[in-house]
Amino acid sequence: MLNEIITTGGIDYAVQNLCTGLNTISFVVQEMTVDEAESAFKNVTALAVKSEDGDVYGEYPNVVYASVTKDAAGYVAVSMRIPTQMEQQIAELQESQAATDKTQAEQDEIIAELLYGGGAN
């Protein structure tokens, strides 16, 4: 059976049965337990797919861990979700709002310190 290579975070993982679907990518990892696969892919945000020869033929810059499963034969499969453009825009807005909220809280703290004093007398 032909192997493919998933690369993420500078680490190569041998996989089989790589499938892409509408906003998904899934694959069977070799020689990994469910816990090892979950640990390896849970925080992945980007990955590349290479042939055994090392030729990159797929790049996924925005992925989100979806699940890891083990079938009756013992094969461990990982599923990643590819966020839609709208989901990506919402995530960017949420990050921007969080930064704005932090900045506003810092400004409020400084203003309160200037108005009411900040040190022990």
Please explain how this structure is put together.
This protein is an alpha+beta fold and 121 residues long. The chain is 33% helix and 37% strand. It folds into 2 domains: 4-83; 84-121. The protein is built from 2 helices and 7 strands; from the N terminus they run βββαββββα. Strands 5-4-1-2-3-7-6 form a 7-stranded antiparallel β-sheet, with helices on one face. The chain starts with a strand and ends in a 5-residue tail after the last helix.
In whole angstroms, how far apart are the ends? 76 Å
Placed side by side, the strands forming the largest sheet appear as: 5-4-1-2-3-7-6
Strand content: 35-45%
Extract low-pLDDT stretches.
none
Kindly list the characteristics that best describe this protein.
2 helices; 7-stranded antiparallel β-sheet; alpha+beta; single chain; 121 residues
Task: Quickly describe the structure.
With 121 residues, the protein is an alpha+beta fold. Helix content is 33%, strand content 37%.
Write the layout of secondary structure elements.
Blueprint: E1 4-8, E2 11-21, E3 24-29, H1 34-41, E4 47-51, E5 56-60, E6 64-70, E7 76-81, H2 85-116
Antiparallel strand pairs: 1-2, 1-4, 2-3, 3-7, 4-5, 6-7
